[in-house]
Amino acid sequence: MKKILFICSVLFSLSVANAQTLESGSHNTKGYIISDGTIENSSHSTMGYIKSDGTVENSNHSTIGYIKSDGTIENRSHSTVGYVKKDGTVENSSHSTIGYIKDDGTVENSSHSTIGYAKGIRKEWAAVVYFFFKQN
């Protein structure tokens, strides 16, 4: 029994160690993105997934969108909802700027006010979580 508890605690620690924290503008933890693309809320309940092929799924594994290799963000019907440029500028489908993902992980709205922090998280993933496919 002790071995099972030890193994479980090691596995949990490893999964948390590989998680990047999503924070609000006031540094409160909003959730986590695990290195395998699992999106968790602040209580570590799974909210969704970002697959290696760019498919974005909800917690029931239903597809809710796509991240294309060129930074285009699409909904489940393959309609473009936005873009993430290499410099971190986030645009809506009309190419109007709606935010920025800085190299240091700071997430800003279109007025450059900080709305969150996603240090160590790919810009496209952070944009999906903060701007496009918000989990309720």
What is the topology, as strand order, of the major beta sheet?
Answer: 1-2-3-4-5-6-7-8-9-10-11-12
Return the string of H and E elements.
HEEEEEEEEEEEEH
Strand content: 35-45%
**What's the structural domain tally?**
1
Calculate Rg over CA atoms.
16 Å
Query: Residue-averaged pLDDT, rounded?
Result: 86
Q: How many beta-strand segments?
A: 12
Fraction of residues in helix: 10-25%
The low-confidence runs, each spanning 5 or more residues with pLDDT under 50, are 1-17
Please tell me what the overall shape is: globular
Question: Main β-sheet: number of strands, strand sense, barrel status?
Answer: 12 strands, antiparallel, barrel
Structural classification: alpha+beta
Amino- and carboxy-terminal Cα gap = 38 Å
Helix count, DSSP H or I runs of 4 or more residues? 2
Give a brief outline of the structure.
This protein has helices at 2-17, 123-132; strands at residues 19-24, 29-34, 38-41, 46-50, 55-58, 63-67, 72-75, 80-84, 89-92, 97-101, 106-109, 114-117. With 136 residues, the chain is of the alpha+beta class. The chain has one domain.
Question: What are the salient characteristics of this protein?
Answer:
136 residues, Bflower_2, 41% strand, twelve-stranded antiparallel beta barrel, single chain, 12 strands, signal, 2 helices, 19% helix, alpha+beta, globular
